[in-house]
Amino acid sequence: MIFDSYEAFEAAALAPKVVVIGSGPAGITIARKLAAAGITVAILEAGGREYSDESQDFYRGRTVGDPYFDLDITRLRYMGGSSNHWAGWCRVLDAHDFQPKAWAPDTGWPIERKDIEPFLSEVHDILELPEFRADVPISDDMRWVQLIKSPAVRFGEKYADELANSQNIALVLNTSVTELAGDGSKITGTRIWSNGRQAGLLQADYFVVCAGGLENSRLLLWSNQTSNGGVVPHTEALGKYWMEHPTFEGGNAILADYDEFEVDAANEAFFSPSPAAMERLEIMNFGIRLIETPYPGAKRLIADLACSAPDLAEWAAVKLGQHLRCAAQLYVAWEQAPRADNRIELSATDMDQAGVPRIELHWKKSDLERRTILEGLRLFGRTMAEKNLGRVRIDDWLTSGADYPTNQELAGHHHMGGTRMGTDVARSVVDADCKVHAMANLYVGGSSVFCTSGECNPTTTITALACRLGDHLARKIAA
Asked: Which of 197, 260, 429, 466 is the most exposed place for a label (fewest CB within 10 A)?
């Protein structure tokens, strides 16, 4: 069932067992799992069926620190959530991404990769993916990895008919949750904003917050403030350890043979470091995206090299003569270490139309992130040279220690952390089952529970964790 307003939902006199807040990949996946188990669910979606400027305005906020995207364009507030601008890139966090790194404090998860693997077949169906291929080592330090570009599933479109016809799911559009009400041990209801006014309190046995990697923290911070600590009893980590994937062009490569590596349909290849290399260099995980440079660009690159590195230019010129496809740009996206001072706070002065404080995002890249991209490119360059696969030139802004460019991608629009998973209540918000510590009936879905980000796009792992949470809740309710 789909309702276009909270008033229409109320008139139907439905009594959901579970309320899911948000209709993005996590929210819809969890609701479908519960519905398949015969459990009634209400999905509350703040936006409508289509994008609107009025709805999007609720996401305006402020960033303090490094340059970042406007907060009202880096996520979407309508049916299907931010899957509506997802590019479809898929890879699951590696097993070593779940393990602590001795050189990076506050890393490590309370679960392992094997805990989400039983759900990966469901994820492949949901995201319409082929089977993932195994990584291919090209040296002890570097490996070719597969990053699948799925059809970029729009969850609101893909599941619209199923949701409309479901007898166990009520998707309620244009219905915003302004706050959760709680007594310090359980959630007693959600306060609803609809059609420009407060619309009452919705009650259920269980609540799952799936509003996104920024809004999850915002809703819980505000709810905890209005309930005097009744929603998140342990607040030390709430809103903290927020992470992104910094993403920049880091250099160029001249390849001995572009066909040496398997490329995808866009002639791109992807590479990541081995766990041993990361440990030896004490850097975070990273992904190098190798993109073919057109022939004229390759010629310009070799001409530039002639002044600064004549031997390399001569080697490259020979390769260009032998292969018209020998040059590539190198884009790097890398793992940001979890740091408590990268955080989401509530504005003290700026409110949205419903009276909820807007987000103030505090975000900076650390010296460890800078070292990761530079040492990562050096590592890739050494591997290419030692295996005689090619040569790498690192951009001057990196080797000179200059500021990050402001005219590049900046980051991946990947919002992770803020309600991270863990066993220590001083450093985490939810437990290994995504339940908020000390709360009997409050869960969180989505990438805000990530403890570390790895180097890959988060949607595949988000969906796997959502399947796992849906399965856990279904079994708990049945028991």
From this structure: 197
